[in-house]
């Protein structure tokens, strides 16, 4: 990664509403590194679509500016705006394919609009369809395709003009988990092979875990946390990020523990231990037992991979009088700990 593909600088957006204004975005500063897969996560209405649509000029900021490869999108008009749009492809949750056109016809559309000669369109379309693995289905119509196949057509169409940036608006939200994986793998491959920057919006942390090198969390129109995905998963700073994470990283307490959790002693402390970086695979619980003679109860946990690096979360409880010692020992060995409460 060498530079910045997209930057949002003090971006604000208000929409007129009966009797006033609704603020969709406020003070957004965010850099999307060139060649990254950057994901923006937020709840419904947080402002994700508004932010994404500013990158190809479908929305204009009411404050600040959005730069794509150094060009101010909000100020671009006519030919300059068309140029930016050729550099920015987009895929959609509901695919947005033309039902009356075959796979080939859908992929050809942006090239026809760009005025390419017929023979060149034909060759380019074949190449794109091959790239997304749909050669055998090139003459089918959208109604004859599965959701995953439709999204592949959407991806081929978005790549037609050779963009530098691909925007993804909840591209896997309408797909089942297995199909989601195959589409995410395709996006990763395109990012790698073509060096394309991908900016995606999602409400699922699992999507970020699986493919995003960088991420940002948006809430009520503001970015509350951003940075490399691994670092945020390992040490989320904002409560909203933690809430999103609890569903995917085994940080959610099992119901039987949550129901008994008290904020204060006398119960035993429930400790969340996060294993990341160099220490992710260290056998620390075994060492806790052998070195300090403390046996921890395991209440839950997961170990997974984020950006090909191991990452784990373990929920344990230890006797009340050994809590501080346990945390100090684990932290000394490079793990992060947090007391979630106490259980009897
Ligand atoms: N064209 C518009 N006119 C008026 N208000 C709008 C418009 N588009 C979005 N908004 C408002 O701006 C806020 C942010 O909406 P936005 O669609 O960007 O959020 P989102 O995070 O993408 O949500 P979702 O996941 O539901 O699509 C919301 O309060 C929404 O109602």
Automatic annotation (TrEMBL):
GO molecular function, one term: ATP binding
Matches recorded under PROSITE patterns: ABC_TRANSPORTER_1, ABC_TRANSPORTER_2
GO biological process: amino acid transport
Claim: Transferase is one of the keywords in the record: no
GO CC terms of this entry: plasma membrane
Domain ABC transporter stretches: 6-245
SUPFAM superfamilies: ACT-like, P-loop containing nucleoside triphosphate hydrolases
Keywords, alphabetical: Amino-acid transport, ATP-binding, Cell membrane, Membrane, Nucleotide-binding, Translocase, Transport
InterPro entries: AAA+_ATPase (IPR003593), ABC_transporter-like_ATP-bd (IPR003439), ABC_transporter-like_CS (IPR017871), ACT-like_dom_sf (IPR045865), MetN_ABC (IPR041701), MetN_ABC_transporter-like (IPR050086), NIL_domain (IPR018449), P-loop_NTPase (IPR027417)
Superkingdom as given in the UniProt entry: Bacteria
Keyword Protease: no
Stated family: Belongs to the ABC transporter superfamily.
Function in brief: Part of the ABC transporter FtsEX involved in cellular division. Important for assembly or stability of the septal ring.
Name recorded for this polypeptide: Cell division ATP-binding protein FtsE
Species, as recorded: Paracoccus aestuarii
